[in-house]
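Aim 2 progress update. The chain analyzed this quarter is reproduced below.
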Amino acid sequence: MQTTGTVFQPELIELMRAVLDDATAMLPEAKRTSSTKAEIASHILASAAKGERDPIALKATALSAVLECTHYSHDISPARRAV
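Predicted structure tokens:
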């Protein structure tokens, strides 16, 4: 993520915070870890830096990116994950 030099207005920061809270609340409690929350925040920041301001789009982009990363890990046997 390349957001160096990006400045966010206070209203957008509040919007992103609300989107982060809403997105995190949609996850199962076991998935609400600090690392998952940080990853969601990273995707929200990246989308906002590209100009996205729609809260639904911000949340959908962030959640889909996080879910794509974790989706396939459940399909792989524990023995194969150790490789």
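DSSP finds four helices and no strands in the chain. The two ends are 28 Å apart (CA to CA). These observations will guide the mutagenesis experiments scheduled for the next reporting period.
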